[in-house]
Amino acid sequence: MPGKNDALSVRSRIYRTLYEASGFCTRQTLAKACGVSMPTLYQNLGELMDGGLVRFTGEGRSTGGRKAQGLDIVPDARVALGVSVTESHLRIAAADLRLRELAYRKLPFTLGQQDPTLPRIVEDFLDEAGIARDRLLGIGIAIPGLLTPDHRRIAFSPTLGLRDVPLEALTEGLACPVYVDNDGSASGHAECFSRGGRRHMAYLSLENGVGGAVLMAGQPYGGDNACSGEFGHICVEPGGLRCRCGKQGCLEAYCSARRIEDSLGLDAESFFRAVEQHDPACENLLYDMLRHLATAINSIRMTLDCDVVLGGFFSEYLQPYLPVLRQYVLAANPFAADADFVQLSKLRRHITPLGAALYFIRAFVASV
User: Mean pLDDT score of the chain, rounded to an integer?
Assistant: First the structure.
């Protein structure tokens, strides 16, 4: 007789097959894909439907008999929140099980200040978005910095100006499961998810700071000290501009949005508008940034031999300049015939909070 664990395994396999299906899925195709009999499929589907996790989605084309009914998961059966903490703002997003954004908000926030607190922000956000608490899986929090292996302390965050700081002040009072991750890693996981999660990929996050993630066949590679993907501190100009980490010549010092603000007093939108209008100072700074970015991309490509994907809010403006960046990369690469491996993120907007939410989405799908 099948045991309880066997039943859970079958139900989980059916759910994950539906979750990963790319086309119209019927009971017949589902039973074949999962290797189960129709009675077993009907029993487990009934349980998944009773739990509000699976639904019928319409009818397929007729082949002469009764039209087959389609099946799919219920994407908004559960919701995860993602929070991205920056030096001056907090970005919070709600995502369904397909990582589709349901709600988003950006507001001023400084880590360590008591008003507003994150629990209060979360409660207000859930109320405004109309999200029931019993649908909430948890809250993923993305921090621009290195975390300790137990993810309980910020080991070092040049962007936030913090070193060896406990996270309780941020997470205390949250009435649901919480997971804290590096912002570059969270974004990289979201980008990999959006691409099907199978290829090798180096993700380079360009925001006020510069970070990233390394994913091998869709799986994160953290390294011996969970420091993999700290691309912002690759040296691209020995003895060059001083970085907030205390060293000189780091990629972050040359290719972050912070450099634009420090140099010209402009935000990214105003800067790129000025570039379009051929402002000399802005054009010179942009092409200097692209050349240093190309240096880092070549180092990453030579080391990892995989696609290098550029994300973060700064990447939203790079599409018109991608051909120039690829030319710079190709000119320094002795092996490549083209630089198509340099790509822009598919998820350019709100990728960091969505990536933080993905931790709980993946955990739920694996646990059904």
Answer: 90
